[in-house]
Amino acid sequence: MADAGRDDRCPPIGNWATLFGMGYDDRPYWCSMCSLRGFWKPHRAARECTMIDWDDVRHFLAVARGGSVRAAAGRLGVNHSTVLRRIAQLEERLGAQMFEKLPSGYRLTAAGEEVLELANQMEASSHQLETRVFGRDQSVRGLLRVTLAPPLATHLLMPDFADFARLHPDIEMEILSSGELANLTNREADVAIRVVYDRKTLPLNLHGLKGPELFGGVYMSRDRLAAWRADAPDPIRWIVISIHGIPDWAREGEVRTTGVPFRTTDGEAQIVAVRQGLGITTLPCFVGDADPLLVRVPGTDLHMYGTLWLLTQGETRKTKRVQLFTEFVSRRLAAYAPLLAGLSLSRD
Length: 348
What we know:
The structure is a single chain. By secondary structure, the protein is α/β, with parallel strands linked by helices. Helices cover 36% and strands 22% of the residues. A hairpin with a 2-residue loop joins β3 and β4 (105-108). The protein is globular, with a radius of gyration of 26 Å.
């Protein structure tokens, strides 16, 4: 047999209209709609009007983009058999085989290649339709999806999200706190809070509200610094997230590392490790300065990660709940500017 489509390319789950129909009796015939859209093969129409279901097309796109049924099922959050059933339904309605099954995965047939081009157009039209209708919604109720990096949610903005939820109890908030960038164009999220180093890299179709600058520094535990000053013999290690390593800008300052690195797979484990006195690590200032157990390593400098931006897209930004949220969070971020820039605490 998916922060621009989902960069692994599957559209958001929702109620989608079926987009084009076929015949009305049980005779083989050339369907005018299929011919117009490139589905050239004569097929037998159902007695009742048969519609191509967008959900079938959605599953087709996920397999075409993922290269396997398993990848498609994972992206769509369904089981293996559901994907196979949806593909079979689409093939039956179009009267053509969409995929060849190979040892390396699923490869599109010639018919599948033509369907893929049109399915991409259907997807784009569906997103545009949903976005325009959503933009007319001026109620202060309904779903609001916000995407941001986990540290911003966990260590900075969750109390503010809670305040906003209390102010607007009819808005259903969904916080997408993940290292993966949700795609606003595909309506995977309504608002993105992102750290942007170069403004020129922002997509032109996104509306941006600029926030404060974000800085980071090098930190260690207060107890470990006191032990180092007392000439404790324990080794001091760099504590790093495995996939990132030691940033180019970071240096040891007055405290020199003497042990092999200590690696973690996520930011929360990194913070716990530095609290335990294993060594030094880099953290955003809003994390390190706010932690009473941590202190900046003497002789080290701050580094600018980038600028925080609140991003919205198209008609979505015109909705009342998105406007209320962006205005609210923008004010909170402005108040956090000294903390984000590393100016709220003096160095020890």
